[in-house]
Amino acid sequence: MASDLGYSCGSCGEWHDELPLSYGAPFPEYWTDELAGDEASGLSEDQCVIKGEHFFVHGLIEIPVTDAGETFSWGVWVSLSQANYDRMSELWETEGRESEPPYFGWLSTQLPYSPETLNLKTLLHTRAVGERPVIELEPTDHPLAVEQRTGISLDRVKEVAGLMLHG
User: Which domain does 72 fall in, by range?
Assistant: First the structure.
């Protein structure tokens, strides 16, 4: 398993005992600490509402690691329309929710890619109760979308680890 492998970090030159296969954002890009006291705003591990007008769901962009038989994941937030958010929330604890059609959304997490990842078009696919939704990016030439379609190497996972651990 790749996460059990140590690696020499390209950023700091040090040996790290574990290679992380996932990173996540704790809240959408648009959340601020001031919103925590706002009655019309709320943040949980899975859902977020800002001022009763903007609706977000936490999901995973999954990327195959082609030379390791593993999956790398970005934990990201996607904005949904109020109608889609309400429908998804209504079915949140309902068995069989994974048979719902995907919900259109906009990526609301900035990841270390150029160009930026904010507002990339997505489809949010719900999965079985207890499983975080999976996020499918629109098949464009954006590097993140290309990686999701074609996979990444273990060396790319190490590169991402250096970026995430050391900026």
Answer: 22-150
